[in-house]
TrEMBL record:
Residues 174-277 form the YgjP-like metallopeptidase domain. This is DUF45 domain-containing protein. Residues 1-37 are annotated as: Disordered. Residues 1-19 have a biased composition (Basic and acidic residues). Signal peptide: none annotated.
Length: 307
């Protein structure tokens, strides 16, 4: 068993680990916002009784002996919700110490992100549920500077109205997308405009969008449109994308002259292009298209003129 795994045999008392306030998450459950976490059920010939296992790779797994009444499982999971939350938090702490923060560890049980890690701006925003207008209530207690990944500062908390959270992703995802678009307009567009001024590019205009696969695009008129998903990328990769799009204001193609210009403005362009191919892993799952995105598709999409 990995060091990061935690077992719990049902029937015993939950272990007291002292990490997390008592009653944490109660507010959410009372409102019916946060029912049961997703889990995998595994029937084991060797298991003598039910066990809950939490691991980074698989999340929550419910191991049951053969012949166990499967309809009882939701009840078993519900009874151990407090332990599940503590185990998740321990995994997050371990992931932070290891310098990795898998998306799954950051998302709440219903897929609602707990954090928005805007690496481009060096900001971490905690996500909370606003139970009543003007009265912040239920959170996971994570809006805490100690929980912020290294290199980012706790910028604040984003409150999502509880009715939107109750509707699931169709409720909260558009809300968060609008919020992110605002951060991108405030943080990315001035960056692009400053870069254009400093490097002598003629930028006709700029805007923010949320295209499926492109990080940005540039129109024949010299209007650059940036994806709000850039917010999640490290600053050096964002700057590379900004330079890429600004170079399209000179060359609206991906020919040798275009790449010479890119490399002149970004001496580490080759490294940045390579890293950009894996950069989708920085973007939270709820913002990625349902189908997996090939790196070449994302790369090809860059800088095409807007229709
Ligand atoms: Zn391009």
């Amino acid at each position: 068993m990995e060091a990061s795994q935690r077992d719990r045999r049902c029937g015993g008392r939950p272990r007291r680990e002292g990490d997390g306030p008592p009653g944490e998450g109660d507010g959410l459950r009372r409102q019916g916002v946060d029912p049961l976490p997703p889990y995998t059920v595994r029937v084991s010939a060797r298991a003598r009784r039910v066990r809950l296992v939490m691991s980074p790779a698989e999340g929550l797994v419910v191991v049951v002996p053969r012949g166990f009444a499967l309809p009882r499982i939701p009840q078993v999971v519900a009874e151990h919700a407090a332990w599940i939350r503590r185990a998740r938090r321990r995994l997050e702490q371990q992931a932070r110490r290891a310098g990795a923060l898998p998306d799954t560890a950051l998302d709440a049980d219903d897929g609602l992100p707990r954090w928005l890690l805007l690496r481009a701006l060096g900001e971490a925003w905690a996500v909370g549920v606003d139970a009543a207008r003007g009265r912040p209530a239920a959170t996971d207690g994570l809006a805490d500077a100690r929980s912020v990944p290294a290199g980012l500062t706790l910028a604040g908390q984003v409150w999502i109205p509880a009715p939107l959270v109750r509707r699931g992703p169709v409720g909260w995802a558009p809300f968060l997308r609008r919020w992110l678009a605002g951060r991108a307009r405030a943080g990315l567009l001035p960056w692009l405009e400053r870069l254009a001024r400093e490097r002598g590019f003629r930028l006709a205009g700029s805007s923010v969008g949320c295209p499926k696969t492109r990080w940005g695009s540039c129109s024949a008129a010299g209007h650059v449109r940036l994806s709000l998903k850039l917010l999640f990328l490290p600053p050096e990769l964002v700057e590379h994308v900004l330079i890429h799009e600004l170079c399209h204001t000179v060359h609206l193609h991906h020919g040798p002259a275009f790449w010479r210009l890119v490399h002149r403005h970004d001496p580490r362009a080759a490294e940045h292009r390579r890293r950009l191919r894996g950069a989708w892993s920085y973007v939270p799952g709820w913002l990625r298209p349902a189908r997996s995105i090939g790196p070449s598709a994302a790369d090809r999409g860059m800088g095409r003129p807007l229709p």
